[in-house]
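Record pair follows.
FIRST:
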Amino acid sequence: MRENKWKNILLDHKKGFRLLKMVHQEDSTVLPGYLFDICLRLGEIYGNLFLSALLIDALLERRFTHAFVWAGSMIGLGFALRTGRLMMRSWFSKVSTKLWLIFYVWLRQKGLSLDYETMEQAETAERITFLEQTADMYGSLGVVLYWYREMLLSILSILASVALVFSLCFKAPSTKTGVFRFFSSPGVSFVMFGCVLAGMFVFSLQTTDYFTRKRKRYFDDHARMEQKLGYLREQVFMNYKAGKVVRVFNMQEMLQKNVAKETDKVRDYYTGMHCTGCAERMGNLSVSSVFTLFSYLFVVCKAATGAVTIGAFTKYVGALNQFGSACASLIEGNVKIREICTYMTDFLTFLDTPDRHATGSIPVEKRTDGEYEIAFEHVSFCYPGSSEPVLSDVNCKIDMKHKLALVGQNGAGKTTFIKLLCRLYEPTKGRITLNGVDIRKYDEEQYRSLFGVVFQDFKLFAFPVWENVAAGAARDEGKLQKSLRQAGAEELVRGMPAGLDTLLYKNMGDGLEISGGEAQKLALARALYKDAPIVILDEPTAALDPIAESEVYERFDRMVEGKTSVYISHRMSSCRFCDDIIVFEKGQIAERGSHEALLAREGLYARMWRAQAKYYT
């Protein structure tokens, strides 16, 4: 049992050292800065101990010139060290902010680098949210460095104190008889000091074990306790869009009751946590008090028997006090580091999450004519953890410079087909090829550059209009205006307060709220700005009525003249102007052909067309 405990401690510190290494790789000045601060603090503590002892002895012996030198040295050293520490404090403030941000940057960088298949899973988003919440509650990288600094300071202080105490133990009394002489003799001094030290160590370990288990229980419940209140605060009270529903349905009283209930639970939780912390501090204080009492008695014996001078008495008492406080700080630091590493373990595991996708390296051929050959070869796909295929044994080729429509009922596999084509998913079976080569062998970024997509659940961001349209590409005024004009958004943007520089939405400031139809036009402009050879429209008009949707598709058809275009809809209005139509049913290609040919076949497409035809005339 004891071996497992020490093994767990070593494993926790292994994670802590990994975090230190990551911080050093990010900024090589941080760790040296913390070490420099430790040197300043040790100099301040032990410099004062030694100089004050020399000053007291000089005054008692009436060596006033020496006393003046030691007093001046104390003042000068104190001024220099405190000035240095004030400068370091300002530096620490900046570093702490940087380290706090680095944690979130690393977390988001990993999230963005993961394959879409992993990021789409609800547990991944929940995991990221949990990591952010625990970092907000317990601190992140800055807290790790703080406690390692305190632990190293404690270790060095213990070593310095032990060296002084050992030298004190060797001090022989000058009196020849008496009880004090017996207790201040070198042999007895070593035994006494060793026994007190061992007792303090054992009691501290027992206390630490007990309170570590109690804190672990509180830690496990912490995020859950805060999550519900966080939801009410951020997603309900701070969400102005929810205000409409709250007022229309008169939900204020219901929400207040929920808040009161969750607040009571959190209050009880924090009360218990606070009481546990107080009990732990009392335990540590008891150990420290016993050791302090022993320190004074020990040094009094030495001073009473003439083993040390009065000045040395203050030095050794100070050293013993430092030893006691350093031991307590070392134990506390170890506990805090292990606490932090408990949730940092999940953070490091998340950073180590492997990418499900193969990493290709073959460059995609640059073609000005946009002529590529894309084929699905016996492609099947199942979501992770499911054996039910979303697509099953799909075989087809996509003809370049043609207009292709994908149709079928909801859940037939149309959007999954597009996500596989864009390499957001990878086939469970089979392969997709570009010019006869498996797309997994191509450089992923270069391969995706072939596609400009407007998904059904397209997303605009609380950034300026031009950034939403350019989507990370360089700003080109002419290209922006052309894309907006083709998408029918030129007049919309011209009427905005700052034109292309107008901030959208209110998440990042006083931005402009736009309607769903206006957002759709900007999303279309974004797909066109990319100027990719293959443009895909994946049901972004699902909320529109069939006639309005048909008009959007007809306008979009003119926009992509000369490119390969793919239209996805469960409505038939988008199919009349397409060269080729693929009909999906239950994850398989049920039919394929032109609009006229499919109508003449009297199959699934014809039935769907007749069922919806009344909306188009």
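SECOND:
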Amino acid sequence: MKGYNSDTIRNVALLGHGGCGKTTFIEAALLATGVVNRLGRVEDGNTVSDYDKMEIEKGYSIGTSIVPVEYNKVKINFIDTPGFFDFVGEVNSALRAVEAAIILVDASSGIQVGTEKAWNSCKQFNIPRIFLISKTDKENVDIDQVVSDLKAKFGTSVVTLEDKDALNEAIAETDEELLDKFFGGEEFTDEEFSNGLLNGIADGGIVPVLMSSALKAEGIKEMMDAIIRYVPKATYIEEYKGIDANDNETSRKCDPGAFTSLFVFKTIADPFLGKISLAKVISGKIAQGQEIYNARTERSEKLGAIFFLRGKTQGEAPNVSAGDIVAIAKLQYTQTGDTLCDKAHIIKYPAIQFPPPSLFLAVEPKAKGDEEKVGTGLNKLMEEDPSFVLERNYETRQTLLGGQGEIQLGIVTAKLKEKFGVDVRTIEQKIPYRETIKGSSDVQGKHKKQTGGAGQYGDVHIKFSPSQEEFEFSEALFGGSVPKNYVPAVEKGLRESMERGPLAGYKVVNVKAVLYDGSYHDVDSSEIAFKIAAALAFKKGIVEARPCLLEPIMHVEVFVPDEYMGDIMGDMNKRRGKILGMEPQMSGGQKLMAEAPQAELFDYAVMLRSMTQARGSFVMSFERYEEVPTHLSEKIIAKHKAEEEA
């Protein structure tokens, strides 16, 4: 594939609900431009953009793929994105590399949840958009109804290019002079009409609607004509804001003559070439062998192999102009979201925004001794998909995978096995309970051991009571009953004992301990003896001070359309939740604020998606610990004892 000048490049992302025809549209575009001689089918696993082995097996897109098409002397870089909501990170990455998005709508299905999410993503990132009603060849489709529904859902900005009156009104809204002219009954000049349409599409005030049938090759060239005509050129992309070396906010447009800067929006782990970085050239040009500077790591890289990708096919890229998308092999210090630039002109573009994980799963290797392989493999996969996270909970000693849903995490574990030969299983996620006391106690801890040689002797009297602090220790000794040099050993013995409580082995918190008496032996007493005596006192004292279990309580904010609020509130109550309030949202719907035990929320992401048809979302954070209800704590304690005996 030859290199293109910046003003003859267009970058567009294909968005929409799963199964709306994004991948098939690209096949039709490739067929229409002579790249392929037959239309690939997702069902047959032979499409250009869904080339990954797992995508072929699953029958749907998992990752973003780049498919350039050369049409009428213009290079259109199509970025095919997954339709499943679990892969929203791929969509966010793609939208950082394009000038516009095409939102596909299945003519037979109409507006779906994925349509709404695609629209919202474009609004969030201020991306111009075009609707493409696909699969118009299906029986019993009502195109007019779909268009009407789009207008009703997304507003008067949605217009068909054949509707001259609606177009004129929308164009008038882009400029005050044009608005005056429109209301004065004057017609726009061709130049006013053309510029108004371009400006309206660029700022999102106009959203054209087109139609196509990939199977019948209808509307494909018309769509590409519209892209060339209406999508902002790569050189006119909205300014990328970043921070320069002097910590000043600055902007750069795609400018072939400026210093070099690139933004890495995706990383691919290729089994043969190793790591491949997909980058949008924002300014300047790049060529093989060029020195480039990573603004985040503050390390220089040398550009090795540079090539264009079309699915999995690689094409030479001797030099690449601003606005184009390129693949770079084996960058050592570069990750997704990094800025590469000239060392003499350092700039750092904002990193990609990934949503926080909504679902966590605890995993462990099926084979003993594979823990290190699991960690290494997952960290490699995180380079490819930074939208999932890997956490090690040192308290529960579990490895946690966090992501957007079961499908994404299932793909992650499947790739772990396929690429790194490590198999993991999902296990029950443990809860970091706490133990504390509700009453007071006054106990003696005495350690006395006589052997053939020197003995061991330590004796303490300690009062235990509740505290607002995690642990509070003091001494009220008199008359030298316990020598001062043994007091630190007593405190150490208590602190170590708090790591494992008497009820179910959980950490003990909010306890006050006062050492007020004891005794010692001139020869047999030692620090270790008093440490053991303190541990004995702790074990007895906590049991006598009405111990109880505490559970983590989470603060939850749920964002849902109004029609689901009743179901959401009812479900939260079933989860032992407490509703704190509601707030209407500017974008529509409500924000429900609640508190609920962590134990009741492990499957909340799955249930919320089911209850709201994936329209709901939530964020969650730790709030505090509260006492576990008696009937539940009894089960937890009984389970712990059974595990201890097993």
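COMMENT: The chain is about 30% helix and 30% strand.
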